[in-house]
Amino acid sequence: MTDIWTPTKVGNLEIKNRLAMAPMTRSRANPDGTPGSLAAEYYAQRADLGLLIAEGTQPSDEGQGYIFTPGIYTEAHVEGWKQITSAVHEAGSHIFIQLMHVGRTSHPDNTPGRIRAVAPSAIAPKDQMFTLEGMKPIPEPRALTLEDIGRTIRDFRHAARRAVDAGADGVEIHGANGYLIQQFFAPNANVRTDAYGGSIENRARFAIEVAKAIAEEIGAERTGIRLSPGATLGGLEEGPEGPDLYRYLVRELNKLGLAYVHLMHLGDDTLLADIRRSWDQALIVNRPGRALQNVGADIRAGMADLESYGQLVLATPDFTARLKFGASMNVADRSTYFGGSAKGYTDYPTLAAEAAV
Question: Where is the NADH:flavin oxidoreductase/NADH oxidase N-terminal domain (predicted)?
């Protein structure tokens, strides 16, 4: 029987186990978007997992939403990420960098040059954003023109190339969690009347074009995508057509031969089964809040090729060792999730360190 310890393939990579680290924003980059000095240690500590998916990383100035998130589009960014990818490879794992354009989930205070956010349509999310001056209402974004859409796709393409230049094994397109790509899916955020709005096919078009561009640039085997069907983050409402949009989208993406789909599964088991049947490459399933005793359940049931974990891995560098020994996991310190130093980042204890003490 296939279990979490059975090796597998993602694209052309041999993956030593079926556990993946989910991408998690930690807001510890330098102000220019270069990854911070502790990031290499942080990721290498967790390299016992078969695949690490790095935190959301903006492909352009315009794509930034939060303070101190990393970028991957300048030479400085590339040099910073090289330290991380080298450390992960030396520790025996593989790493994909997640490309995250937040769209309307932004505030000018958090971007270089105080850039106004862009989105499919000029509709604000009715939410607030943390800035260095505290919480502020998110202002109305500017609707992307057709020229803007083409430029944004080129930004994704450029960032993917830069990620590979930095030694990443591939990139994950962030098409989930209320950010730009998912904003195109949701009728309450996308009221366009051109080729990118209205029908399911039109609302899925931007995601497909981004995936095509990146696959052409770095290879489909190095390209993954994260999706979160039904997620309402950022005030999105996908409506009754939502599941059918994802069925169509996955079928179209499957034609490209991408390395994987990374699915944040929120309970629609029928949709999960349909995606499983429609997808020929690796399927990574993330179930938020999955109980520890259920680790590996989707793999054993044949519903996933890998399972990804976020908070448990954030707090437990030796996650795989503790699973093998049946040891308890560390408790995550939520106060240190975003920003700060080594505390709550690289100082979580391991079984080996505790034994040495």
Answer: 4-326
- Catalytic: 179? yes
Q: What is the tens place of the pLDDT at every residue in 276-332? A: 999 999 999 999 999 999 999 999 999 999 999 999 999 999 999 999 999 999 999
* Spatial separation of the C-alpha atoms in residues 89 and 155, rounded to whole Å: 27
Instruction: Yes or no: say if 18 and 305 are a contact pair by the CB < 8 Å rule.
Output: yes
Our separate counts of H helices and E strands in the chain read 11, 14
Q: Pick the catalytic residue from 43, 66, 73, 179.
A: 179
- CA–CA gap between residue 73 and residue 272 (Å, rounded): 34
Q: What's the pLDDT tens digit per position in 228-270? A: 999 999 999 999 999 999 999 999 999 999 999 999 999 999 9
pTM of the model: 0.97
